[in-house]
Design brief:
Elements lengths: L1 H7 L7 E2 L2 E2 L21 E5 L7 H5 L4 E6 L3 E2 L7 E7 L2 E11 L6 H13 L6 E10 L2 E14 L2 E12 L7 E9 L17 H7 L1 E2 L2
Antiparallel strand pairs: 1-2, 3-4, 4-12, 5-6, 6-7, 7-11, 8-9, 9-10, 10-11
């Protein structure tokens, strides 16, 4: 499933608009798991750290943390703040990436429209299926969801995506949360399930700004 894997990891590289950027420079290798919240025994905590970032990621750095299933893998060559994935053999089943966003909540629909247009160029049979305001933990946010279908090294697969935009607030930058799942998942069966079923909810529900 080499071709599918490449698409799953290329989403962040197309998202640049005005102050919004999901990819610019390589991620750091921080894996600091200390935080005031308690983690499940089956999860690992990622705490973002400024060390190792340069360029736009350094300029727009934001503190955040989240828990992800310990069986997932950190993608060390990511061009976001961080990217983690669940695999089945060589197949990517679900992944989660965090990039930066700088802008007020009033601009989020515009960011979403521009980002959706750019993503559509990289995903065959792209279709945005929903868009609107959403609550992520304690944060007001804006999201859109999409579907795609593509040929892979092992046949064909559906790709479902969810992009959540968290605005800048109270002197801190915002963040863009990018979630992808494929039809290789036994629990995720459409874009409406991304971040709601499978293992992505563990990550999404634990995401917090601050350190």
């Amino acid at each position: 499933m080499k071709h599918l894997r490449n698409h799953l990891f290329s989403l962040a590289s197309v998202g640049m608009f005005l102050f919004l950027a999901l990819a610019t420079t390589p991620t750091n290798n921080n894996n600091n798991n200390s935080n005031n919240r308690s983690s499940s025994p089956n999860t690992t905590r990622y705490v973002n750290s400024r060390a190792g970032f340069t360029g736009k990621l350094s300029d727009n750095y934001v503190d955040f943390s989240f828990d992800y299933p310990s069986a997932w893998t950190r993608v060390t060559d990511s061009s976001n703040f961080v990217k983690v994935e669940k695999k089945a053999g060589s197949d990517t089943v679900e992944n989660f990436a965090v990039g930066w966003l700088s802008g007020p909540s009033s601009m989020l629909p515009q960011f979403a429209e521009q980002l959706s247009d750019q993503i559509s160029k990289g995903f065959p049979q792209y279709k945005k299926v929903s868009e609107g305001e959403v609550k992520i933990g304690p944060y007001d946010a804006y999201e859109f969801r999409f579907s795609s279908h593509m040929a892979t090294g092992e046949g064909e697969a559906d790709i479902w995506g969810r992009v959540v935009l968290l605005p800048s607030e109270s002197g801190r930058k915002g963040a863009a949360l990018v979630m992808l799942a494929s039809s290789r998942s036994t629990e995720v069966h459409g874009p409406e399930d991304v971040g709601e079923k499978g293992e992505l909810p563990t990550i999404l529900n634990s995401f917090r700004f601050g350190n």
